[in-house]
Specification:
Length: 431
Amino acid sequence: MRAVDIIIKKRQKLELTSEEIKFFVEGFTHSQIPDYQVSAWAMAVLLNGMTANETTDLTLAMAHSGEILDLSGVVDIAMDKHSSGGVGDKTTLVVLPVVVACGLPVGKMSGRGLGFSGGTLDKMESIPGFRVNLTTEEFKNQLKHNGIVLTGQSLDLAPADGKLYALRDVTGTVQSIPLIASSIMSKKIAAGAQAIVLDVKVGLGAFMETLDEARRLASLMTDIGRLAGRKVVTLLSDMNQPLGQAVGNSLEVIEAIETLHGRGPADFLEHCLHVSAHMLVLGKRAVDLETGRRMAEGVIASGKAFEKFRVLVEAQGGDVSYADNPDKFPKAKFIEVVKADRRGILSQVNARTIGEASVSLGAGRAVKSDPVDHAVGFIIHHKVGDQLDKGEPLFTIYANDAIKQAAAREGLKTAFQWSNKPVAPLPLFYE
Ligand code: URA
């Protein structure tokens, strides 16, 4: 078999066989197929799609590109969650410690930034020393002893997704239902998850802009999960405006820490409580969503959830003094509060524009080898439906480069649309 023939076949909109998909995935996992051919193939998949059979084959081939964890002797139910990606989506940083504090252990495999969407691993790496490349042995030991793990693809775990993910990030090949579904589900299967809560984002700042597309992604992932014998609950949540206020790596870690102390933005806290409640029900720690929610609120109020965050940071080599004292995170050189230049009601706070501007500031990557600047990003002070007076703070820029700061200032102003009439707040969840 030749990689080029597989690329051409996909370009011709033909269905790839299981053998061809396996050959291709093994080839790029072991660097026998170069990045340029993988990128060309990913673009052909993005443009021409994949059948359900191809997507399942791709998911399984990527999951089996490394080890498949068997957590049966480690936890009673291996639980996991995953978001399809959004702007300001730091949910994992709160939900993981919350559900672990409620007695449900979680070993999670996350991703890095992808296109305009931030990545949990990049966020956690704002904490000096925090390691995101655990081996399977380290994953299992930590889950057994600490009940909480947050790692990334490694040479042992879903390496194919690690490679393809990094290429998709910088080749315009993120927004593909089969590539997103296989990326997410291969990680979940490799990490041994038996029960999974999927948070599929919908809207301007999501990879699925319409409810229809989001439903298609959700049902494809649910089918793949069930075929692999996993329990799956899928939520469709809003991503037209950023979640919470902070966008950017360390800014989001700080907001997550504040939320674990009960001081986070109301929308973000509410989102986290809802996702936590679903995990607690699916993981058989709560009889219904109401009980799960109360349990989640309880561990935030008692400080037990924050304590689990500390345990996570310490277990993976991070400097826990940053969790205790978020003032220690390095500050960006230029911090500028931009004020509303009119009175009115916000009718749009475009998450896509904000996500793209944060990547341009350096919070994400333009090419694979780019380093991430953990200090840059934005605080977005208001939500759709808020009434503002002229001169009220609209957003704050955190930049390390004056030219990028000026571009962000102008770019971000276009994210806001105004109305003179009342505007209903956006829902947090659709389904
Ligand atoms: N999260 C992932 O892990 N992969 C994607 O493709 C999108 C979101």
